[in-house]
Amino acid sequence: MIKQLSIAAIALALSAPVVAEKKFEEHNNMMDHGDGHLMDMTGGMVMGQNTDILPGGCDSIAATKEITVHAGHKYSEKFPGTMFAFDVQEYQFEPCTKLTVNFVNDDDVRHQWMMHGLPRYLYPKGMFHLEVTGPGKISGTLIFPPGDKTYLVHCDIAQHMEKGMKGQLKIGKGDGDLPSIPGVSAYVIQDDYSDSVPEKSLADTVVEEITDLQKSVVGNDSFFSGLTVIGLAIGLLVAPLLARKFKGMSGGEVITYIIDLIKEAIEIIIKAINWLVSLVKK
């Protein structure tokens, strides 16, 4: 029996599919689809490439530069709460610079280096885009427009930017820092990794008190909500006043009186809305 099990285990191991690790690929043989759009069949893409047309306002190329940008999970380790990142989060160049970007993907997944806000008359959809699927390298060139501006560069794959793969590129002096750039600017929603317990707000305290009241009155497993408890409390306070008001009335008279109160309340609300609308129109 043991011998049969051993033979079966060996057979299963031999029949298991072998997943070959993808080798690093240089995406050099790109098909030109026009308008600066290059791509191949193995996951490499360049969009918005411009190697020789000067943007309006540039009399000549101010400088010729080249950078290598790495993208991958390992670069996010220095930014708690992130999953992906570029190796560099901020770049700065002169206006009218001709820049070649060598984009290196160090992960087994798809990554991009995209730059938005470029002149649409020169860059289709206003962007420059480099993309590599799996480990590999791809290169593209663009010429920056004149002026001081800060551009977003990021990976547009779902949740990659949200998980940290973004940076900023300043032309000239730039026009300020973009929010939530890892290691550069403050996050719009700041993560808190401290061990301290934050102080309760007044709203949190009120909610907690209502919840405690609910539990003490109707129990933890009741379907009643805290609002039900408040409603009951208000009802208990108002009930004596209503009892005196309705004393001696028949059931029909009580219903008629309540309907009249509701109508009056609706009329007051409508008047208030009309008053607010008239103020806005002025």
Describe the structure.
- With 282 residues, this protein is α+β, with helices and mostly antiparallel strands.
- It folds into 2 domains: 25-171, Cupredoxins -  blue copper proteins (Immunoglobulin-like, Sandwich), CATH 2.60.40; 202-281, no CATH class.
- It has 4 helices and 13 strands.
- The protein has helices at 2-15, 202-218, 226-245, 251-281; strands at residues 25-26, 31-32, 38-39, 44-47, 63-72, 85-86, 90-93, 97-105, 110-116, 127-133, 136-143, 149-154, 166-171.
- Strands 2-3-4-10-9-12-13-7 form an 8-stranded mixed beta sheet, with no helix packed on it.
- Strand 2 (31-32) and strand 3 (38-39) form a beta hairpin.
- The N and C termini lie far apart (93 Å).
- The mean pLDDT is 81.
